[in-house]
Input
Amino acid sequence: MSILAVHPGAYYHIESFESPRHAGYFDQLVRPEDLGSVALEEHNVVLIPCRTPADRMAPHAARLRAYLDGGGTIVATGESESQLFLPGISFTPQPTNFWWWLTPGADLGVRIAAPEHALFQRLEQRDITWHLHGWFDAPPGAEILAVNGQGKPILYIDDVTTAGRMVLTSLDPFFHHGSHFMPATTRFLEGFLPWMRNTLDRKASQ
Output
């Protein structure tokens, strides 16, 4: 079992990937520019974190597609414009209200769409609720895990576009956790990373 994390090197990536709290979830870290030197097929999961510059990933689009076509799993979190280097993604950005929660009784509208999914044995709705940056038009057959107030997917699993699997979200937990801003994002990682290790990594090994 092995998880490769792309490490763009910003302060929030360093905090998320290198601090003792979460470092054990990642078997190898690699700069985007060095992806060409890594045998992706040796890893069960490739994680592309929040705010990875798309222009640093775009040169590797063909290799990432080949990895997916070979049955690999890619996890990509928000604000990375993943549609520019991963296949089959249709994304619509939206203005972000960073301070919605200051309004008494405010509701961001985020909802769990598949409460029976194993991920939500580890996460509650409050753990996926902080900001919205946009939504996806998920392909038919994709598994929708969470939606915005208009019912648009913000977290889903696509195992129909390729022979592999993509876990895609517009949420940006690594950025906020690594910035020590928004406790929900730390709770999200505390649930998501064990699920990634115990479910995605294990499935890929079978």
Summary: Strands lie at 3-6, 28-30, 45-48, 73-76, 91-93, 111-112, 134-136, 143-147, 153-158, 165-169.
